[in-house]
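It is worth pausing here to work through a concrete case rather than discussing structure prediction in the abstract. The textbook approach is simple: state the sequence, then state the predicted structure, then interpret. We follow exactly that order.
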Amino acid sequence: MVSHWDRASVDKASPPRPLPLWLIVVLGVAGMSGAIWGLHAGAFLIGPVLLAFVLTVVAHPLVGALTRRGLPRWLGVGIAVLVVDGGIIAFALAVLVSVGQLATVLPSYSDEWQHLLDDLQSTLRSLGVGAQQTQQILSSVGPKVVISGVGRLLTSSIDALAALVLVLATALFMAIDGAGLPERLGAVPRTSPGLATALHRFARSTRRYIVITSVFGFAVAVVDTIGLYLLGVPLALLWGLLSFLTNYIPNIGFIVGLAPPTLLALLVGGPGLALAVVLLYCVANFIIQSIVQPLFVGDAVGLSVTLTFLSTLAWTFILGPVGAILAIPLTLLGFAVLVDQDPERRWAKVLLAGASGASSDPAAPARRGRSGRPSGSSGGALRPQVAGRSGSSLRGDARADGARKSPDHAGSAPTGRRSGPWHRPHRTTPTSPTSSSSVSS
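Step two, the predicted structure:
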C-alpha cells in the first residue's frame, strides 16, 4: 500500500527540467539576429508602417474626445486623419522646399568653402602631416563633393514621396480600424490581463513622449529660427525645421541639428559667427529642455539614458533615419511586449528603467503578496507555520488526518470548504515516514 508520505512526495515532485541556459541563450540570440535581419531587409516598407502606427496611437484619443462632444464617430475619425495626414504633408513640403533652397544657395559659397579647406590644409602641414595624407583627408569634403551630396539629398527627398503616400494611406486605414478598437479589446483583459495593461501603458507613454517632445521641440525650433535669422545665417527656416525634427532623436539629435547651421555660419561670417550659433543652440536647448521642461513634466518614458542611447543606435541601423526618430516609441513597444507584461520580469523593468523608473515603480520599495503583506511575513495568526511548513500544506495534512478519524468525528470539521477567518487551523506536528507508513498500513 502506498503510504501518505509517498503520496505527498509524488504531489510535491519538481516540474520538468527546462532547457539548459546556454541553449536558451543561443536560441534567443539566433532568433533576435533573424528578426533584426528581417526588419533591416524590409526597412523600406516596415519604417513607414511603424511611423503611421505611432502617429495613429498618438492621435487616437482625439477621436474619443470628439465623439464625447457629440460628433459622429466617422466625423471624428475624419478630423483625426486630417490632422495627422495634413501635418505630415505640411512638414514634408516645408523640408522639401528648404532642401531645394539649400541646393540653390550652397554653390555660391564654394569659394569660401575652398578657402576654408586651404587654411585647414596649411594648419595640418604645420603640424607635421604630409601633403599627400592631407589631400586624402580633405578630398572627401571638398565643395564639389558637398554640393553633389546635397543634390542627392534633394533627389532622395523627392523619391521619399512614395513612402509618404504609404504613410498617409496606412495612417488612414489604422485610424478607421482604431475607432472601434476599445470595444474589440474588451475581451483581452479576461484572457491576458498583463499584456493588455502593458499595451495601455505603452500607448500612454508614447503619447506623453510625442506630445512633450513636440511641444518643447517646437519651442526650441522657434527660438533657433529667430536667433539664426537675427544673426544673418542663411536658410534659418530650414535649420529650425531640422532642429525640430532632430529633437525626436535622443542624445545625439542636438549634435545632428547643430552641425549644418554651424558650418554654414563658418562659411558666411567666419569663426565668430559659428561660435555665436553654437552658443545660441546650447543656451536655447539648456534653458527650455533642462530647466523649463522638468517644471511641467518629469521623466516621460522611464527608460535609462544608456538604454535610450543604445536603442537609438540600434533602430537607426535597422530602419535608417525613421528608426532614429522612432527609437523611443519602438523601444517602449518592445519593452511592453517582452518585459512589462510579465510580473516575474519586474527585475528587468527596474534595471532597464534606471534610477527614475526604479523610484516610480510601486513594487520597488517592498514586494507584497496577494494578501497585501510583505512577501517575507508569515501571515499572522490566520496562517501559522509549523516546522517551516506553509499554511496551505498544514491545512492539507489536517484534512487528511480528519479523513482517517472515526465516523463520530467526521462531521466535526467540514471538508472541501475553506474555513472562515475566525477559524484557527488545527495545529499538528509533522510525522516521520516510518510512523506515517505504519498508520497507513
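Step three, interpretation. Residues 7-14, 362-441 have pLDDT under 50 and may be disordered. DSSP finds 20 helices and no strands in the chain.
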